[in-house]
Design goal:
With 427 residues, the protein is α/β, with parallel strands linked by helices. It folds into 2 domains: 6-287, Type I PLP-dependent aspartate aminotransferase-like (Major domain) (Aspartate Aminotransferase, domain 2), CATH 3.40.640; 292-425, Alpha-Beta Complex (Aspartate Aminotransferase, domain 1). The protein contains 16 helices and 12 strands. It has helices at residues 6-12, 38-45, 60-73, 84-93, 110-122, 136-141, 165-174, 187-190, 236-239, 250-272, 278-288, 291-310, 329-335, 351-360, 391-396, 413-425; strands at residues 77-81, 101-105, 126-130, 147-153, 179-182, 200-204, 218-222, 315-319, 343-348, 366-367, 377-379, 403-407. The strands form 2 sheets. The protein has a 7-stranded mixed sheet with strand order 1-7-6-5-4-2-3, sandwiched between helices. A 5-stranded mixed sheet has the order 8-9-12-11-10. The radius of gyration is 22 Å and the shape is globular. The termini are far apart. The structure holds pyridoxal-5'-phosphate. Residues 83-85, 109, 111-112, 153, 157, 182, 184, 204, 206-207, 216, 218 line the site of pyridoxal-5'-phosphate (PLP).
């Protein structure tokens, strides 16, 4: 499928049925697979032949969907995970161990921030956070001898900062380590980080890729471009024999294109699980089939809502990279020429009380701890995810009490704006 355009890949990549086979990807709801001889199965365990033996490691339904996402991102291989959290953890832990260090943009999803600063710290993996707006000098100064990866989000959730992927890739590569980019918000429809130098791309497929709020999931895509062997001293897990897996040296046996995902499957998935179910992969694929049709509408609605809100007297600020007033407008034009996503955040002058009243009066936009699905939803962090903080603490964290995040769905933008208008009038 690699010669086709992205729109065609969304619909058809990853699975080509043979004569008389099911048109839709079959849900292979089976934990295990049968073989005629032990010898046949032995070859699979030795990674001498490819095939399936147990769905914690690989499953045909999941593999078809992963192959589609690999094509969409322009990568060489991909694997599905049980969640976006698992995808980011595996992507980093596949090349980090106790004693390693990660350089990360400070503007990232809260779950990933905790993963790095709490859970991975307990494993002896250290992190240095840098502002996504840092200079090249500041970025380079964050590296240490034990740095093994650089991490950032194309459009950060929830801050909506846009990552200068080329700047981060250049710094990573000059220090001999890969750049991992979480591309959840723009999806490959609006940005393909590998084209700008990213080495590994991750997603919470729970968001736009699924797009209907139906299945939690994640994916890791390898560009196949990072030369592990050229930095073998940094990546012994890929470049020296894995005694836990028949003495295989992944980077030798599977090359640049296959080493990362093969190790991640045969080692991390084997030992930690976090596998996506075939049923969820099937649902994810239904979302992918229309991703290229849905994303432009999310962007159109996000842009319209952001422009409307910017003109309202009760609104003190609107954060959306598609607004000319936005700090990330220029960089957004470079990396996201067709727009980013449908998530907009804005602040009401009346603070917490105004936010509560406003949201109570919304009819179409539901209050949810979620973003990026077909139905518009919104959240006031001060009264929900961050309710343990007082107004001063919220202000210090850059989350003012009157801040609302709205994820614009696929409804008619005139209806969305009318809903916001009537709720604003009731504050
Ligand atoms: C939601 C999200 C995650 C976590 O994904 P889950 O599927 O909820 O585990 C990671 N990164 C970003 C950018 C997200 O929005």
């Amino acid at each position: 499928m690699s010669d086709y355009k992205l729109n065609t890949k969304c619909v058809q990549a990853g699975y080509t049925p043979g004569n008389g086979e099911p048109r839709q990807i079959p849900i292979i709801q089976s934990t295990t697979f049968k073989y005629d001889t032990s010898e046949d199965m032995g070859k699979l365990f030795d990674l001498e032949a490819s095939g399936y033996f147990y769905s914690r490691l690989q499953n045909p339904t999941c593999d078809h969907v992963a192959a589609k996402i690999a094509e969409l991102e322009g990568g060489s291989a991909a694997m599905l995970t049980s969640s976006g959290q698992a995808a980011n953890f595996f992507a980093m832990f596949n090349i980090c161990e106790c004693g390693s260090h990660v350089v990360s943009s400070s503007s990232i999803y809260g779950g990933t921030f905790n993963l790095l600063s709490v859970t991975m710290a307990k494993m002896g993996i250290e992190v240095t956070f840098v502002s996504p707006d840092c200079t090249e000098e500041e970025l380079n100064a964050a590296f240490k001898d034990n740095t093994r990866a650089v991490f950032g989000e194309t459009i950060a959730n929830p801050a909506l900062t846009v990552l200068d992927i080329e700047k981060f890739a250049k710094a990573a590569h000059s220090h001999g380590v890969p750049l991992i980019v979480d591309n959840t918000f723009p999806t490959p429809v609006n940005c393909r980080p590998i084209e700008w130098g990213a080495d590994i791309v991750t997603h919470s497929t729970t968001k736009y890729m699924d797009g209907h709020g139906s299945a939690v999931g994640g994916v890791i895509v390898d560009s196949g471009k990072f030369d592990w062997m050229a930095h073998a001293d940094k990546f012994p897990g890929l470049c020296t024999p894995d005694e836990s897996y028949h003495g295989i040296t992944y980077a030798e046996k599977f090359g640049k294109e296959g080493a990362f995902i093969t190790k991640c499957t045969s080692q991390l998935m084997r030992d930690l699980g976090c596998v996506q179910s075939p049923q969820s992969a099937f649902i994810l694929n239904l979302g992918l089939e229309s991703l290229h049709v849905r994303m432009p509408r999310h962007v159109e609605n996000g842009q319209a809502v952001a422009e409307f809100l910017e003109a309202q007297p009760q609104v003190t600020s609107v954060n959306y990279p598609g607004l000319k007033s936005n700090k990330y407008y220029e960089i957004g034009q470079k990396y996201l020429p067709n727009g980013g996503c449908g998530v907009v955040s804005f602040e009401l002058s009346g603070g917490r009380a105004a936010a509560e009243k406003f949201m109570k009066n919304l009819k179409l936009a539901a209050i949810e701890t979620h973003v990026a699905d077909a139905r518009t939803c919104c959240l006031n962090p001060a009264t929900s995810t961050h309710r343990q903080m007082n107004d001063e603490q919220l202000e210090a964290a850059g989350i003012p009490a009157g801040l609302i995040r709205i994820s614009c769905g696929l409804e008619d933008k005139e209806d969305l704006i009318a809903d916001l208008k009537q709720a604003l009038e009731k504050i």
